[in-house]
Every structure is written in C-alpha cells, then in structure tokens.
C-alpha cells in the first residue's frame, strides 16, 4: 500500500529535523544519543524524502521526540511509504501528530508497551491487551 500525503518538505533541502532558527543548539543527553531534545515550542523545518519508508519515518520522529519505537518484522517497511509535505516550520509535538496521521494513512498506528511504542497494523489493535492502571487512593 502506497499513499502520498502531498507536501513540499523535500523541496526545501534542510536536514531532517533541522531547527528552523539558529537559537540554542539542540541538547543531547549523552555521547552517542541521537535524540535532539528540542526545547518546547522550538520549531523545525521538515525535510523528508518523497516516498519515505517506515523505518526512516520512525527514525526521524524518534530522533526529534526522544520516543523509543519497535517495528515488528511482520510489517515490511518498504511496503509502507509516505510523502509528507509541510511548508511551514513545526514543533516536535506537531511533527508527532503529523507522524501519527501518516501512519494512519497506511493502516498503522502505535501502541504503548511499557516505555516503548510498538508500530502495529490498525486492524490488529483490537487484539492488543489494554493496559490497566489502578490508582492507590489509600
């Protein structure tokens, strides 16, 4: 299944997740951490290649949101591609919303499993266990 979300992002030539302003440089938690940890509200220019495959899309959003994802081998990443165009700069939160919409457009969603998010087929979400938390009021 291939679906393009028509956009202009790839025409801008900016690096994936590049901050839109030259304000403070992105912080890194530790050496080797690719997480950009953008300050709340900082805007970035989206630049993903056309027909971005699932692994590249998840890697991009993981780097700017610092969320951890699992993509099961049952989902062939090359079979799920999207083209996202976002001509304005966006925040990390807006990028995450765009990411979720892109996943939805190809029949995927994310499911929280502990501290990580699993990419799952939307049709299979009904069979996923629903986590239950009970608050201790005593």
- In the CATH scheme, what's the topology name? Ribosomal Protein S8, Chain: A, domain 1
CATH C-level name: Alpha Beta
CATH architecture: 2-Layer Sandwich
> Helical residue percent?
10-25%
What is the H/E order? EEEHEEEHEE
CA(first)-CA(last) distance:
51 Å
- Note the main sheet: 3 strands, antiparallel
Query: Could you say how many structural domains there are in total?
Result: 1
Strand content: 15-25%
Task: Give the number of DSSP strands.
Answer: 8
* Biggest sheet, spatial arrangement of strands: 1-2-6
Shape: globular
Provide mean pLDDT, rounded. Answer: 75
Gyration radius from CA atoms, angstroms: 16 Å
The low-pLDDT segments are 1-29
Structural class by secondary-structure content: alpha+beta
- Counting DSSP H or I runs of 4 or more residues, the number of helices is 2
Helices and strands in order:
Layout (H helix, E strand, L loop, with lengths): L17 E2 L23 E3 L6 E2 H12 L3 E2 L10 E2 L7 E2 H14 L2 E6 L2 E6 L17
């Amino acid at each position: 299944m291939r679906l393009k979300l028509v956009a202009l992002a790839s025409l801008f030539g900016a690096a994936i997740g590049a901050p839109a302003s030259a304000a403070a440089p992105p912080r890194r938690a530790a050496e080797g951490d690719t997480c950009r940890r953008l300050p709340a509200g900082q805007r970035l220019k989206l630049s993903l290649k056309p027909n971005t495959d699932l692994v590249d899309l998840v890697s991009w959003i993981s780097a700017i949101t610092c969320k951890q994802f699992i993509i099961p081998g049952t989902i062939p990443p090359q079979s799920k591609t999207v083209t996202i165009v976002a001509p304005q700069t966006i925040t990390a939160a807006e990028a995450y919303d765009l990411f979720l919409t892109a996943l939805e457009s190809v029949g995927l969603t994310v499911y929280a499993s502990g501290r990580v998010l699993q990419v799952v087929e939307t049709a299979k979400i009904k069979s996923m266990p629903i986590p239950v938390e009970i608050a201790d009021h005593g």
